[in-house]
Amino acid sequence: MVEKKDLRRCYLFQELTDAEIERIRPLIFEKEYRGGTVLFFEGMAGGVMYLVKTGKVEIYTKKKGKEITIATLGPGDFVGEMSLIDDQPRSAAARVSGDTVLMVVTKKNFQDILTASPEGANKILIAFLKILSRRLRDTNRKIADL
Question: In the CATH scheme, what is the homologous superfamily, with its name and number, of domain 4-144?
């Protein structure tokens, strides 16, 4: 089971109470990945979100045969969340750079997290919206620079 302190580092869970954290801890597990491991490819079906405990995850896409790094995520960040919400294929690819430990949340467990506490669900969803908004703005800036 993941540690409470590790969940606290993740932006999604920073506003949760200790009791809310304790309710979701059993629904999240850790997995180690070797450097260079691809978590998912663009266009792939989703269903899993990853929270970075240690290491880094690169989000990238290919345009006109050229690989473009969209973002590099580190401890406290998360990736793959869109597939838990909209059931659409992955919009980009992700791989770990260097040995990395990720906390993994399946779609079913994410639904269970949201139903575990209505107050906690509101806090998590607000954090989601803030991060998605920031990422969209960052991506728009990068695209404008191409």
Answer: Jelly Rolls (2.60.120.10)
